[in-house]
Design goal:
Length: 148
């Protein structure tokens, strides 16, 4: 199965010019499937954590957005228990002009600034809104427990 030139170019750039705090390595059996690690951004409740994600480029990429999910458990209003991510660039705001690295940077930014007003994990979002200190404390505890 030959890969489109675009995927080859993007993969080469991810490897040769990695995004700080993010690694994305294609699977040797399937070059559309990436093992991703994102370091928790400093100053966020996720600081010090290493979060594993999987990223898959569908056959229609770049017309369709990549499929991305967290494999590491995380306490975050925009990421549900199954690791699915609520992020506009993965859904309605996807554009073929975006790249894998743009998506990974957006996910890293989401860790820095959770958005409880557009939640995927409703209970977490409620906690974030009603008792932000407690939500941040729980997010730190989960980071220590699951992302070390």
């Amino acid at each position: 199965m030959s890969l489109p030139k675009r995927i080859i170019r993007e993969t080469e750039r991810l490897v040769s010019d990695p995004v700080p705090g993010i690694t994305a390595v294609p699977h040797e059996d399937n070059l559309r499937y990436f093992n991703v690690t994102i370091d928790g951004p400093s100053g966020s409740p996720y600081e010090g954590g290493k979060f594993k994600l999987e990223l898959f480029l569908p056959d229609d990429y770049p017309m369709l957005a990549p499929k991305v999910r967290f494999l590491t458990k995380i306490y975050h209003p925009n990421i549900d228990r199954l690791g699915r991510i609520c992020l506009d660039v993965l859904k309605a705001n996807w554009s073929p002009a975006l790249q894998v690295r743009t998506i990974l940077l957006s996910i890293q930014a989401l860790l820095s600034s959770p958005n409880p007003d557009d939640p995927l994990a409703n209970e977490v979002a409620e906690e974030w809104k009603s008792n932000e200190q407690n939500a941040i404390k729980t997010a730190r505890e989960w980071t220590e427990r699951f992302a070390q």
